[in-house]
């Protein structure tokens, strides 16, 4: 899996959640693996960032670190500039998280996602445990992305995921 594919998988998870669960879209962690992608809905995500951080730190320990999952995604409904949107954040080992969003259509589906951009390090601090967990994994876990851990993609530093615009 390449980083751009991770974005696609997480956006597809958002579309599936909207179609299957309806609104409000529950906060959900996306854990792509070599055999299947797991969606872990968090129906009781606490309202404050410190408590959310604790919940996601436990989830990261139990499912990212224990299962050696080198990437993650997070899907949630939010209000942005007075409009309801679905926000998708995703990150991978040695790749800073990116964020994208999509507005709801009149019929309750999602519009096309806006271009992804780097997530500001101070935004959504409760997601930090997910990124810290994937960054702490040993290099051999890069093989889940089809890479030799000693070599990156063309023009990439050793061990990095190839990025495609």
Task: Output the keywords.
165 residues; alpha+beta
Report how far apart the termini are. 15 Å
Biggest beta-sheet profile = 6 strands, antiparallel
Q: From the helix content, strand content and strand pairing, which structural class follows?
A: alpha+beta
The percentage of residues in β strands lies in 15-25%
Which SSEs are present, and which pair or pack?
Elements: H1 3-21, E1 28-32, E2 37-41, H2 49-65, E3 71-80, E4 83-92, E5 95-103, E6 117-118, H3 128-135
Antiparallel strand pairs: 1-2, 1-3, 3-4, 4-5, 5-6
Task: Please tell me about this protein's structure.
- The structure is a single chain.
- The chain is α+β, with helices and mostly antiparallel strands and 165 residues long.
- The protein has a six-stranded antiparallel beta sheet with strand order 2-1-3-4-5-6.
- Helix 2 (49-65) runs parallel beside helix 3.
- It is built from three helices and six strands.
- A hairpin with a 4-residue loop joins strand 1 and strand 2 (37-41).
- It has one domain.
Question: Gist?
Answer:
With 165 residues, the chain is of the alpha+beta class. Helices cover 27% and strands 25% of the residues.
């Amino acid at each position: 899996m390449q980083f751009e594919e991770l974005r696609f998988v997480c956006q597809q998870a958002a579309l599936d959640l909207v179609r299957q669960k309806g609104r409000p879209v529950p906060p959900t962690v996306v854990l792509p693996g070599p055999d299947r992608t797991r969606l872990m809905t968090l129906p009781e995500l606490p309202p404050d960032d410190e408590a959310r951080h604790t919940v996601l730190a436990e989830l990261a320990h139990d499912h990212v670190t224990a299962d050696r999952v080198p990437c993650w995604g997070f899907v949630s409904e939010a209000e942005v500039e007075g409009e309801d949107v679905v926000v998708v954040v995703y990150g991978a080992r040695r790749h800073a998280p990116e964020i994208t969003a999509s507005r709801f259509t009149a019929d309750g589906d999602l519009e096309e996602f806006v271009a992804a951009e780097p997530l500001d390090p101070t935004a959504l601090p409760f997601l930090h445990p997910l990124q810290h967990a994937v960054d702490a994994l040993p290099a051999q876990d890069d093989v889940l992305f089809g890479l030799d851990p000693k070599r990156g993609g063309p023009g990439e530093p050793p061990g990095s995921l190839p990025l495609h615009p």
